[in-house]
Structure formats: C-alpha cells, structure tokens
Amino acid sequence: MANPNILVILTDDQGWGDLSIHGNTNLDTPNVDSIAQDGVLFNRFYVCPVCAPTRAEFLTGRYHLRGGVHGVTEGAERLCLSEKTIADTFKAAGYATGAFGKWHNGTQHPYHPNARGFDEFFGFCSGHWGHYFDAEVEHNGRFTQGQGYLADEITDRAMDFMATNVSSEQPFFCYLPFNIPHTPFQVPNRFYEKFRDFTIDMRATNPEHEDVERTRSALALCENIDWNAGRLLDKLDQLGIAEDTIVFYFGDNGPNGARWNGGMKGTKGSTDEGGVRVPGLMRWSKHIQPGMVIEEIAGGIDLLPTLADMACVEVVSEKPLDGRSLKPLLINETTDWPDRMIFTHQRNAISVRNQQFRLDTKGKLYNMFTDPGQIRDVSDDFPEVQAMLVKAVDEWCTEVFPIQDDLPFSVGYWKSTPLPARDGVPHGGIQRSARAPNCSYFTNWTEVNDSMTWDITVGTSGNYEAIVYYTCPAEDVGATVELSFNGQTVQGQVTELHDPPLVGEVDDRFPRGSESFVKDFKQLMLGVLHMVSGRGTLTLRALDVPGSQVMDVRRVMLIKEEK
C-alpha cells in the first residue's frame, strides 16, 4: 500500500465545547463533526494550557519542557535544536512537507519552520497577530502582504500544496495551524451576522464570568474554521485522495474565555480539565471504522508516534518519546491498553491525569468520571491513588527540570534574520505598543539615553545589511540612529516621514485585550554592519532627538552579504 497523505489541522484557543458534536447547540460545525462521524472521536484528548508548548509536543512526541519550550514569547517558545520534528520524520520518508499558518516555535533560523523539516511555510512565526485581513505574512522566510482573510488564505495555500504534490505523485504531510479563534476577534461578516443578536442558550458553568458578546465572536470564528475544514475535505474528494489521506483535527488549549465547555473547570492557561481537554478527531476512510468513540486518554504527544505508525514511517528522533502510538485503539489490535498518565505544566505548576483521576497543582484529587468541574476533593477516599500521582509528579519534575532559558537569538544562519520588537528589550522610556509582546512594536522613544537591545549570537562572521522598520510623523523627521554590535556600528538618518494609521479596531467584533494594533512600517536602510561570530548585545540608540520622539520600531532586519 502506498504511503498515505497526512493532513493535520490545529486550531488556536478552540475548547472541547466549541463543536456541535460535543453537544453545543450554540453553533453548527458539521464539517469538523464529519471527521469523527466518518472516523473516530477521541473524547479525552489532552494538550497544554497554552499555545507554544502544545505545538512543541505535537512536533516532537515529547513533553514540551524536554524541548526547552516553557512559555509563549521572548524566546521561551523556541524548540531546542537537538529535537527532531514530525516534519523531519516524514521528510526523511520521502514526503513533501508544508506548514500553513501559525508556527510559534521560533522565528529566526535555525528555529524557523523551513529549518525544522518543512519544505514550504506560509504564515507567521509569532504567537498571535494583530490583524487578520490582508495581514503581513511570510512565505519561506520572505515577508509579503497577504490577500483577504488570513484563515481563508492559509487554507487556500494548504489546498494548493496538496494539489501540487498529488500532481507530482508525491505523498504529503500538510500541517495547517489556524490562527483562530484566538483574539483579536475578527471574522468576516458572513460568519458574524448569524451571531450578532444570537441568544446563547448554553452558558459557561459560572455564567457571571461569561461575556456573551465575546462568546458570540468566538463562535463565529469557530464556524469560519468549520467552513474552511469543509473546503479542505472537499478538496481531498476533488483530488481523488480522500481514502488515501489521514486527517487529524485538534485544538491547542482550552477556550479563550468563559463559555460552555461541558461543565469542566478551567479555561485557556489553566492546568485543570477545561484548560487542557480539547477536540481530537481523526479520519482515514476504509482504514478506521467510522463512528468510533475512544474514551482512553490520549494527547498531542501521541500524534507523532501514531501518524508514523499508521503510515509505516520510521521515527527519526533518537530521543525517547513520551507519546505512544494509538494505532492499537484505532484498528482494534488489542483490548489490553494499560492505564497511563499525562502531565500538564504551566508556570512551574504541575497537574497529572490518569484514566479516572486528576491530581491538581495543589495536590487535590478529583474523580473526573463523576466530577468534571473538580468540586469535591477525593484524596481521603483514594489515598493510595493520591500518593501514587504525587510521587509521579515528583519523578517527572526531576526528569524535565531545569530548563535552559537564557539562549540568545540566532543571526546569520540564513540569508536574512528578522529581530522583531517582541524579541528585544526596551530601555529608558521606550514602551511596547501593547502588553503582549508577540505582535507589538516599540514606541515612546523620546530620549537619547533610551535604547532597545537584542541578545544575539552570530553564527557566521561577515557583513550584514542592516534595516530598521519604522514609522515617524513629519514633525519628528531628522533623528540619527545607531546600530551597534560588539564594537562595530552603523548609522542612518530618518529623512522621510512615514506616519500610517493604525488598523484593526474597525474589524474587531469585541474589544481586544493584549494584542497590539498594527500599521505599515517603512524600511530605513542603515548600511552594512560587520559582525563577528559569537554572542553579544545588538543595540539600537539615537544620537539626537530633533522632534518629540525618534520613531516607532517594528523590527530590525539583518541580511547577510553573499561572499
């Protein structure tokens, strides 16, 4: 039998309850539901409380801390270079590999998706984006202007990728990590109109914590995902490869807000059940019995070993996997499935789940069969279980800690290296444009003593063209800025105004929280900076401030001169 194609769909901030197949009557998700109806539903599927760790576990089949991923920004999201990815595995087996959407496991080479086994990448490397219409994206390391709604566009790109490889008769591994329903809540009118005045009948466990307008926006985004899922499934039919393609659909964490989620405790960011139990659906026509429901606990760490096993592909990682192949459950090879534990980490707080019980971060034990809301501590009823799980957490922590978290950002491992504001440190009065670093820029640069720095390591000595992406109103034009690294400097003067408006607010269906609004940034060419390999601090400072401020800064770009 020829190698099956693989399509993995990952959604961002979609909780277990955000599908109609799980009983939510507030929305309709017939296309996503059909994946389970034609295949299998993993009813207890577990990931991490936040985005980047889940992605790392999917990519490696190993707990995220083993791969150095312990946060979502400022370098904590980067996957250690010693880890092999699921794309490495399938590429070694002769597959074409593509990722389309949100990466969130490193921006600069060699952390970039094109350096982690993916032949093709279209999307963004940051944790979240500030605008979803005609968004700035990158294609194989080059920044470009997107066309249309971002979730629709990455779906188009994924479908083109699949079609191209069907034409060339090459099996493909297609990874489609959607950016929604993550905030900002931006969605085309055709999906939002249904929910504009929609009555939300099924509410959060604690309705007083739920903002109905926020829920309406999130559900509209979930229906956009469903529409795009339908397009993907139709494309597989059109290409004649539906029976030859494994489709897996899952979420990266619990819902981004209080809304109906099956009575479970916790939302995104929580190690409780509602923060880490997500949709898990799989289809492989004529190979998996349709309509199966698997109650055994499983998770994102299981996808690499499962998909490799189903495709008869050898895993290239030499490191031991934490996940296990779910193939025996899928094809009924055995009924002897031993109990297991799945660990959850967030900010050094650990929870662990076995088939029946959850031990929370405070050492309390809950029977998840009868108490999804984690209301009654049953430690006194099952002391041996509580003690076993406490011991397991202690042993797990010994294995995965400590984490190296002082790694510099890499420069010179690829022709061009972006150093966005989110990876830099502001000094003096300089501020970020929003609380969340991911899509922010630096602003309020008003003094010559202010600066911004990046902790970097240069992989290759040489000359690098230095570019600053800036905005500046007419009254502030004229400042001279200096970029320096380990004693070498280059200077440039702001001679042209560039003061575009902020965009995004008019498209927000619900007021955004931590995401920055975005705007168009202009390139300021500073010249050529000679950089010697090694670690140091890249510093951007002003030599003068002729107006009220120097400029706003989105990123520094370093382009290595070819020898």
In which range does the helix fraction lie?
A: 10-25%
Low-confidence stretches: none
Judging from the principal axes of the Cα atoms, what is the shape?
A: globular
| Total count of strands | 29
CATH fold name of the largest domain: Alkaline Phosphatase, subunit A
Question: What number of domains?
Answer: 3
Strand content: 25-35%
Number of helices: 10
| Rg computed from alpha carbons, rounded to a whole number of angstroms | 24 Å
Structural class: alpha+beta
- Tell me about the biggest sheet? 10 strands, mixed
What is the CATH first-level class name of the largest domain?
Alpha Beta
CATH superfamily of the largest domain: Alkaline Phosphatase, subunit A
CATH architecture of the largest domain: 3-Layer(aba) Sandwich
* Spatial order of the strands forming the largest sheet: 7-6-5-4-8-1-9-11-2-12
